[in-house]
């Protein structure tokens, strides 16, 4: 790990390199950690489960901050589409939600995801421009949506 900033304990910034994963899985970009808090823990969807629809609710167990009130935390959510070759493409922008009591959720808006695809998502806490560590990535699949036409009237 590489440390940036002053030697003050209140201003040490830890650089987290790209998150390497085992078995040649894709990596997500790293970031600078400037908020002393644990990483949130993704709860659902996870483990490559198929979602009920095309607007899943991403839910994570809340972080445990040090030296700040948890009431002040905002959660950033990022979603990446996994390509057939394993590459990742970010879906939309980083979206945010205000922390709730024990878990924090964000519902993906309609139109962001495509059917029959695999996605990974992650979340982190933030106060202003200070960020905590990213969670581990969680994977899910979107269903194949079949549109049925209404039967026509016979004459």
Q: Summarize the biggest pleated sheet.
A: 7 strands, mixed
How many beta-strand elements? 13
Globally, the shape reads elongated
Count of alpha and pi helical runs: 0
Q: Note the run of SSEs as H and E.
A: EEEEEEEEEEEEE
Taking the alpha carbons of the first and last residues, their distance comes to: 75 Å
Which class do the helix and strand fractions yield? mainly beta
* Low-confidence spans: 1-24
Mean pLDDT: 82
Q: How would you characterize the overall build of this protein?
A:
- The protein is mainly β and 155 residues long.
- Helices cover 0% and strands 37% of the residues.
- The chain has no helices and 13 strands.
- The strands form 3 sheets. Strands 5, 7, 8, 9, 11, 12 and 13 form a 7-stranded mixed sheet that branches.
- Residues 1-24 have low confidence and may be disordered.
Tag the structure with descriptive keywords.
mainly beta, 37% strand, disordered N terminus, 155 residues, single chain, three-stranded antiparallel β-sheet, seven-stranded mixed β-sheet, elongated, 13 strands
Topology readout:
Blueprint: E1 2-4, E2 13-16, E3 31-33, E4 41-44, E5 49-50, E6 57-61, E7 74-82, E8 88-90, E9 95-98, E10 103-107, E11 118-127, E12 130-131, E13 138-141
Parallel strand pairs: 5-13
Antiparallel strand pairs: 1-2, 2-3, 4-6, 6-10, 7-8, 7-9, 7-11, 11-12, 11-13
Gist of the model:
The chain has 155 residues and is mostly beta strands.
């Amino acid at each position: 790990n590489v440390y940036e900033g002053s030697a003050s304990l209140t201003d040490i910034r830890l650089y987290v390199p790209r998150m390497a994963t085992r078995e040649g899985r894709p990596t997500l970009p790293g970031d600078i950690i400037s908020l002393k808090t644990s990483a949130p823990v993704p709860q659902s969807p996870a483990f490559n489960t198929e979602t009920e629809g095309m607007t899943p609710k991403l839910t994570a167990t809340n972080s445990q901050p040090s030296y700040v009130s948890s009431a002040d935390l905002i959660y950033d959510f990022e979603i990446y589409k996994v390509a057939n070759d394993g590459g990742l493409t970010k879906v939309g922008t980083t979206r945010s939600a205000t922390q709730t009591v024990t878990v924090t959720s964000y519902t993906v808006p309609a139109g962001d995801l495509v059917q029959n695809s695999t996605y990974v998502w992650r979340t982190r806490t933030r106060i202003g421009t200070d960020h905590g560590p990213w969670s581990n990535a969680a994977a899910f699949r979107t269903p194949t949506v079949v549109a049925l036409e209404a039967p026509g009237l016979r004459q």
